[in-house]
Amino acid sequence: MSDTILEVKSLSCKGQDGNVIISEVNFAVRENDVVIIQGKSGSGKSTLLKCLAHLNLYDGEVFYHGETPKKLGIPLFRTRVTYVPQRPSLLPGTPRDFIRAISGFSARTGSGIKKDVLYNEIAERSTGIGKAWDVEEGLWDREWSNLSGGEAQRIALATAFGCDTAEVLLLDEPTSALDAESGSQVEKFIVDEVRNSESALKAVVWITHSDEQGGRVGTRYLRISEGLCDEEAAPDV
Ligand SMILES: Nc1ncnc2c1ncn2[C@@H]1O[C@H](COP(=O)(O)OP(=O)(O)OP(=O)(O)O)[C@@H](O)[C@H]1O
């Protein structure tokens, strides 16, 4: 189908101990999809997202518009298919250091844009989105390790949107550390961006433990159980 962005074929992943975590996963992500991934704790949801972002080794294939990440170039692929971690507080330095580092990647500056100009653009967009989510300006200069879980989560997400390059965002429980009000603000922003035809973002793969959230935002539903991944009907919430 022409609107297919990602195609996952026979994807399997083992842990360092050789145990199979997920096996023979097949699905496609198409334009306007909000694909909800559900499953018990430890079932392999984050593992699947990290494989999609080419952060884990896997067997099988992931195609982005029909091309493998290797053929496209993995750094460029990661600017288009971007993983947003559940616990960004494990990153070194401050959020601004992180923006400075990613502004220097040649996959981003390859278009000829200067590193400093790109840094200013990403920082301005990211802090602007953060402001709308009540993230104080000063928090961008605090070490990730000293941010609260909810602050770090909003900052990581605002930065992913601030980069404005991802066609697919892989969101690992993006609102799990947020209070109800902040969570619904962020949730609405994500869904609006997928629906906004002017946004670079065309689809989201979203891990959530909440059936209610899945029901509100999802358009398709995958469940991981005992290493296998099956598509399900929308939950009855
Ligand atoms: N590198 C690794 N080596 C060995 N085992 C691993 C590795 N990474 C993850 N695992 C194991 O694989 C299983 C799946 O982990 P994963 O983080 O994908 O689960 P999850 O479904 O996202 O869980 P949660 O809902 O608790 O976040 C777990 O049992 C985990 O301990």
From TrEMBL:
Protein biosynthesis listed as a keyword: no
Pfam families for the chain: ABC_tran
Top-level taxon in the UniProt lineage: Eukaryota
Keyword line: ATP-binding, Nucleotide-binding
UniProt domain ABC transporter: residue ranges: 6-237
Name listed for the protein in its UniProt record: ABC transporter domain-containing protein
Organism: Hohenbuehelia grisea
